[in-house]
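[[Encoded backbone]]
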Amino acid sequence: MKEHKGKQGKRGVQNMDCKKRSVLYLLRKRNRSVILWLILFVITTLMLACITIGHGAGAAMERLFQAMGGYFKIEADHKPGSNKYVNDELVNHIMDSYEIQEFNGMDTVYFMAGDMELAPGRFTQEGDEKAKLARLMGNTDTSLNEYFILQSLLLAKGRHITAEDSYKALLSQELAEKNGLSAGDTISLSYYGEDAGLDWHTFEIVGIFQIKSRQNSYTSNTAECDMVENFIFTDTRSIREMVGRALEREIDSYRSGALFFVDHPQTLERIVSDLAAQSEQGKEGWQVVKNNKQYQESRIPLERLKSLTTLIVAIVIVLGFLIVTLILLLWMRERVHETGIYLSMGIRKISILMQHMMENLILAFLAFVLSCILAAGAVPGLEQAVLAVMDEGPSSEADKSLLLTEQDMAQPEAEIEVTMELNLLTILQIGILEFCVVILATGISSVTILKMKPKNILSMMS
């Protein structure tokens, strides 16, 4: 009778699948289960935080590039003897030959402001007629002008000027307030040149901009036309008509060159290299300028942040693997008796290994779920903490290099926005990494016992 009951118990253990044995073991060894769960929870949480930050930094670099770094400039070669401008033919060739998203053709000419009063400068003090001289900046799309892209200037009222506009203007708040002007009003301007007569043209004000970053300081020698307050933005069509009429010839070029916008840093590098080679070989009379210095400077803290999080993840994975493996090796020595009993009952080694895997994977899954739940609620706080560190910003010397000058377009300090989110890709990456660590550590710790022969295990038990 006893023998019959013993055979039934043996068959019961044999028929018990590894899942049930795993759960029973975890419940029986609660202290060990809690310790291993806590270790896995810490590992998972650290990896989750670092990968989330890394993804946020990567996404921020993409947004930063599109906002301020994703363009290059084609401008006339100003070497002696070269009087060529960037014309429509060249622009169309670039637009048709490369992956260009948008472009903005630019002109800079000087116009007499008529009855409009400008912010005073050097010529006002001297009583010179040039005190009425304003800088008129033509654009096919003023929203794509570098001043607005880099947020040195911000549109305060009205709208931007587009390629469809004709005789439209954007004025600064200072100039508008000084002359009692607003969107919808008109101003009169006349082209200024040695061979041009006073031919007045009427412009409708469609927008008012405010100055966010200006020159470090104006001196008594600063001309009115060089003061940002006196800049007037207008459309390409009116510039060409007025200058063409004054010079009595058709205008088909952009005096200040053109900006071309792309969607990826690698695309920018490739196009710029190709065009630079064409210009050098063909002596075309134009040159390529890669205007992403501000992007390169602004992305440095983001690159450092992404590299740091990648390094931390690597360290956490390696240390976590070593710690989990060491703990499981120590505990496995105490499971020799259990393994011997299983083997004596006819349970195969692969089933015992699967039991060990299942035990640790259950704990890993529970740690993973809790980490994801906590991380979802902690993402806003994590985002604020990262931004607080990055808001320390560059030194005062670096700030000085970002001020407006006449020769170097304004490049104000970038406002880096790091937005973090716990997306499905991050969750999958963390889950795969965690389960790989657990499976590998379990396999290494279990093989020391499972590679032993049953009789050796039984002799150790005795």
